[in-house]
Amino acid sequence: MSRISLKCSLALLPLAAGAMLMLGSCSGKKKQPERQPIAKVACDESFESVMEQEVAVFEYVYPKEDVIASYMPESEVIDSIMSMGSYKNGVVTRPLTEEELKYLRSNKKIVHQQRIAVDAIALIVNPENPVEILSRKDLAEILSGDVTRWDQVEPCKLGDIRVVFDHQGSSTVKYMRDSVLGGRQFGPNVSAVKSNPDVFKAVAENRNAIGVIGVSWVSSDMAGREQSVEELAARAEKSDTTVMEFSSDVKVLKMRGDGEVTAYKPYQAYIFDGSYPLHRSVWMICTAPGGTSHRFYSFVTGFQGQKIIQMTGILPATVRPRMVRVE
After folding, report:
1. DSSP for 96-135?
2. In terms of pTM, does the model score above 0.85?
């Protein structure tokens, strides 16, 4: 009998608890690596599709690290950071105010915040909708309820316009109310569903619907084939640029700014030079002095994290914009 067989046989003699311990040592299984303390990220739900990829690649590159992202309305993200609880990272569409920074620092928090991206708000319609272009003025009239039918936009056989947002408390709703309507209320033709995928589904199934959604949700990288984390990590290492296309399940409208003649789709280069009129900044906040939370913040704001953002269709803060196919 070999030594290994003898050791395993002898392991059967002691009491059950001791036997189980001995048998575990004989099984030949490798001990799992210990994981670092969990980093919890509170993220504006508009950027869920982006953050899921950031977390997946970070954990692939750093297998001992553990990041959990929770998605919620932007106001709840800010509340989570200000409560100084378990959430040390936040992703929102604005930096913390001086008053908020003063409060955190008075509680001995070291605050880091950096713009990580510029997000475009995409307007999507059903592929059977003949409308191709909206002006900022057209959009304001639709959102306010002054224009309620598609044949008021251009001659067509479609009926009442149904505007669909992701969530009544989302930052997308706030952006449209503040930046497009100037603080005015939405019309009765505006409603909210439960999530960004629900917006996508509502538009794909309803010829009269127009969806308001972050551009990362309609890029072909997100709505087309699923990429493995290995593929994402490999692409995040490269500094190349590629042409981005949108999902064919919906139609992304071109937008024309006030007083402008040319209309543009929300491609990264047009977000970069300001030609596409519906855009907003995305910020990441970190209140952890070190550990996994701070390492994840450094990853997202660094080259790899910025390249992942570039691949989702929105404009990264520090990586050059993609080349685009001019239509």
Report:
1. PPHHHHHHHHHTT---EEEEEEEEEEEEEE-TT----EEE
2. no
